[in-house]
Design brief:
The structure is a homotetramer. By secondary structure, chain A is of the alpha+beta class. In chain A, 30% of the residues lie in helices and 19% in strands. In chain A, 65% of the residues are buried.
């Protein structure tokens, strides 16, 4: 399906060679100031050729709001958005090699198997241009989340090939135990990330190694993958809709829907599976000493007197999510991207009908590593997930607030028990 | 939400201490033979205490079909299923420690933050008993998939703590490149997996090491995590609904919705991000030599003359999915499980209201490693995803089949091009 | 589909001859007191044989809550509910007439056409027993709506055959113009309705005529239809989700999903199509003089300071909905029920395969008019619609409330225009 | 919500004064020939000023396909469609009367109550321009339904004010019993309907009376409502998804979502509620003598050997739907439209804040009767409903077809019973 979300519903359209690409956002709260200027920056960050950007007024991939706002304010009605395609002519079906041979590990063949019709661009909708609608919709969600809660979403490159910003070590099988990682997660912002263009890895040394590695792959007409880490700060507690729409489940869904992704891990991730429970459990401590960032202190939630969580955790192996529900700590996760399928080297393949083997090679320049450009896409999808979860939880909380108060259900007096609790049923 | 799937919709209910747990399956095809005997085996595999099972007639977690079948045949109407809870009494809200202190890294605190009401079992619906409905619904889906396509779904333990069945090596950063792994994926069945109880890791040496490791953690009143690998064989090509419901995205969603999961990787996974594209791309080859397993040859699809894919791939880094769509090769993925939060050791925590710090420890026996019992749950969720994707693709294919034929859109004659294709727009 | 609603999601299961019928309610606000005693009264009102009810402790159709509550309070998790079927044995497929001949205008034939499998009860899921889950779910919604807003939902019989409570006249083509109707709509309650058992038409004379007419049809082994009018009072303004889920659209959907319904009209309805616009338009007047009923004054919304609408309408041809959105006035609508298909008279039909014509007649007692028993079902479906709309609007309102305030967008000073407005584009 | 349908999902956007209006169609079958020429005719029929149309090349409301097709063939990917708005400038918020006074029975006030933001066009999204996206999406669905099944959908005006094409009589309380009506329903086509412009009522005498009545209302600066009847011919049996998505329920939902609608009745409708069951039940007869129209005989379903129903009904009070499922007979229903709220007469109203009463009148020309222009909108919404139902049923049927055959479940031999069947449980 081309719709994402239950409350903040994004429906996208468009492939490489049609008139335009875009989306409809249904469910955006009314009364929010919104113009194209709120959306364009992420569109521009998504564009190819980031390393050469010299002006923010780049006219390419320019987004136009079609509906849903008036005088720069959202009406609560569907927001249509569109970006024109520059090359709208689909290639003619000539008797070309690419029409006969599917590109290895690309979507050409599976799209034909699925739809029974071959677009001139092969897997037309598998094109990275499809992500334009996502980024536009994500930018709107981000604005709301920032205004309402002071939420900040920042993604950055954590590996290219085998060059890692935080390589796993015996001491730190997961970066969750690495103080340098946790410190970065608590403070990194987009401006800093973009100061490390072209790879967007916020470390001078690692960044340089990654640039060298990518250059090497480019020279060999090959490609290489990598990973992106994303942090969501200042998220309210209570987000996520068990049992099927746990917050990590919808984040995983969102991330694996991005082209070329191969993996997702939340918090301690796969490394955390090797850490003893006695270490991995995050002890609760009082949140009374927590200093609120100004973005939170000035947010709508703060203005409206929404109470702050009274607990926080000493460590954060959980990655800000427990039982599928956010606990208020920074949510962080990692996404793996495979090496781009389109490479300049000759590759073995066979005709669509299997009758003949052959060789295929991409001509022209192509991107040896998609990771740096994936950053704003990861941020956008994270914003869509959190926006949807926020609206769901707001709905529940408001519904509950209109009910008569209950007798107290959680004790807070002196304990009389022995500090021992029963194992629950399974 | 408690509903999973668009076409084969599963809605579950129930927590630890209520009358029953169960689900409603809406969208099951009519006319399939179905009784409780088709469902009970996976229910039994899911139960605790697997290592002590001596009789298949174990009466615990017995499932009862409530509706949707008659004379052992599905009617196409919703199938209600129920498993009674043995201990239906919620614990009284006494002034006990557990009522005042949330368990670290458990769902106690986030459930209260989310719902504002505290169930006696803490995060009541985060209980593993919630998965009963999933396993029941998955067993029905599996039966359909087997009858209609000969699909086989098998999960097994691939690591406990740092004991790996296929440890990553410089030569094989991802098991996808390891012939022993690929051979296992092509042949493993559930009977073999269960012959390696209690850990369900199909290798004598690794299995023994895992047993020892778990025993060690049990003795120290600690817990440890691990990973499960699952393979889906004989899947038709064309499954998966881009752009948001790519097959790996819905698999990731399904897997991360299982309690205690921390990560998901499809095919080559995170390891594959370090492999050059020239290696990672899976060359297409003719499928004409592929030998059909008998389960496929005797399936409904074969009987009805559904054509087989004409291509297959020489390698399978893609894990059976390209562009978000299945390509007919085995789909395999890995899921990470964290160490269980409930441990016998004393742990630091604070009261719900943050006013006081304290110590909490679980009494009684508890499971030091949830991985072996997660096997049937992973299989069930995989079945739900594939079932939904199969119904969606069948619908599309049938809809298309009623349209007038088009002029040929894919050439199959001699190539006239130079084997070079343009890079597509991004 | 067997699921209704987006926010308050009800999934039902069960047919006549299975173990049980019931439903899962997902999305019920947490923290509401709820036991079976809140649900049973509507279940009992739905039961057949209303005229003979002598005790409220009737044990038939007894509902059991399976999950989602603890100590009589909702947890916010799915609420499973179940009513056991007394006769669980499906009839054996003998060579009986009913197995060969579909009943005219019943669901026997279309169910077989749709599912390709014939349940022993013919259109098994078309049985009125299917409505049990709806009524149970509706009772929970009603309780919330009453507590949170003081909403009252009352349905009553307005016609049986050609006996009308408010027959259309040249003066009053629609009852909307009839003061007696509007007065009734403003005040009728369930207790009054039930004092007019067995037909539930709150007028002594009309009621008696209806009883006589039904008796007449019963004696002739025939059946007759009728209409039910339902009013929803104290609804907040702003409910309904254009453009597709306008409030009247979801009400129409809900009502036409009830077995045996043939029509739906909102407000002035079909009669209103014959009234000039100059009459039909409802003039706005200040709501400052409106007296709040105590149920509203004591509701959660009042307690939380939710502002009351500042306008109301002098007349109510609109039936409480304008532009698909509630305006705070009483919502009223009418639902038409056809004569029951099952009658004792002999009827012409043909075998399922069309090979032979034949005669079919129902044996035993059957209901000559379903209208009186439909009353609680109409109320339940109305409650489901309003509940869903309330949660959607609460979500929007809360989301908006966290945004920074806008400059004023509606003027309220002295008019300077000439009282003339442009026709809008179409 | 702005999305309609589960399988063929239409999402619309746009209001009166934004850049464009349009929609995204997700789920259109791939491989269908489709260009703007398939869509434009219904767009043009929807436009205002039908009586003055002299050329089919009218350039207004011109639709542009944005995506989802290539070389005039659908790809199976989302189809974006757009119609530019000519007047994109929202009116400035001056201190005008219309900014202060809501129009009676228009959506101005309820939109402000709902969204808390006032669009310059009042109830911006309640504008009839919103229906453009529906009509475009409906035209695509219609094409598929015609090619695949020979389905024909035709709507026509059946009343304006109290001028009825088939006025109810004691003999014919519902037109369903009127042979002239049934004959019309069996044969009417769009060309004939449009030959009765401007009112689209296919009867010379009634048409003239309607024209006179509308002229009269126009002269008095007033408005009047009416009804539209729509027939869907050649529908396959088995459509409709009980229990909540019965075919009449989704049709009712669709129709009541059209602006200005007040009522819906299927088949015999409200009139049928006054007909005895013994008359109302439609006797089954063999369908072997039914002559297939050429559109059906040449359809994809016929080509693919889809079996035809073996039964039909002698009468059609049911309106082609029984138990919520189509039975293959013509589906017909009636929709009521209220008099347009915007009239030239002065009308009483009050300021938004209730502080002041006032008088409002629309300037300029306005439409005294919306019924004739509603015809293509009714047809479009009917097409969306049937398309969704067709895809759902195709999915089920195909899923079932891959299962092993069951033992026969319906007898077809000689009857041995006594022609008497038990009343089912309720």
């Amino acid at each position: 399906m081309s719709t994402f979300g239950q409350y903040y519903r994004v429906t996208t359209y468009g492939e490489s060679h049609c008139r335009s690409v875009g989306c409809i956002v249904d469910g955006c709260p009314p009364g929010m100031e919104l113009t194209e200027e709120d959306i364009q920056p992420q569109m521009t960050r998504r564009r190819p050729g980031q390393s050469n950007i010299t002006t923010p007024r780049n006219e390419k991939d320019k987004v136009f709001i079609q509906s849903g706002t008036e005088f720069g304010v959202t009406l609560g009605t569907p927001i249509g958005m569109m970006v024109l395609n520059e090359d709208q002519r689909p290639k003619d079906y000539g008797n070309l090699t690419m029409d006969r041979f599917p590109r290895p590990s690309h979507a050409d063949w599976t799209y034909l198997e699925k739809y029974g019709v071959k677009a001139s661009s092969g897997g037309g909708r598998s094109s990275a241009r499809e992500t334009i609608g996502r980024v536009a919709a994500g930018a709107i969600a981000e604005k709301y989340l920032r205004l309402a809660y002071g939420i900040e979403i920042v993604a950055f490159t954590t590996s290219v090939g085998n060059v890692h910003l935080f390589p796993p070590t015996p001491e730190h099988p997961s970066p969750s135990t690495n103080p340098a990682f946790l410190s970065l997660v608590n403070s990194i912002d987009r401006k800093t990330v973009d100061s490390y263009l072209p790879v967007r890895c916020p470390d001078t040394e690692a960044s340089q190694k990654m640039v060298d590695l990518i250059s090497d792959f480019r020279d060999r007409h090959d490609s290489i993958g990598g990973t992106v880490t994303c942090v969501i700060r200042n998220c309210p507690s209570g987000l996520g809709e068990p049992c099927f729409d746990k917050l990590e489940a919808t984040l995983a869904h969102a991330m694996l829907s991005i082209p070329a992704t191969k993996g997702f891990e939340i918090g301690s991730g796969f490394g955390g599976c090797e850490v003893p429970g006695s270490t991995h459990n995050d002890p609760f401590v009082s949140a009374s000493d927590v200093q609120l960032p100004s973005s939170v202190a000035e947010s709508g939630a703060a203005r409206s007197g929404t109470p702050r969580p009274r607990l926080t955790t000493k460590t954060n192996y959980s990655g800000g999510i427990q039982g599928g529900i956010s606990n208020g700590a920074p949510i962080y996760f990692r996404v793996g991207f495979k090496p781009a399928a389109t490479i300049g080297q000759e590759q073995q393949t066979a005709t669509y009908d299997g009758s003949e083997e052959g060789i295929l090679a991409a001509k022209g320049r192509h991107d040896p590593c998609v990771v740096p450009r994936a950053i704003p896409i990861v941020e956008a999808m994270a914003a869509l997930v959190i926006m949807d979860a926020v609206l769901a939880q707001q709905a529940r909380h408001t519904a509950k607030s209109l009910l008569p108060p209950l007798k107290q259900t959680v004790n807070s007096g002196k304990p009389t028990g022995n500090g021992v609790t029963e194992t629950e049923k399974v």
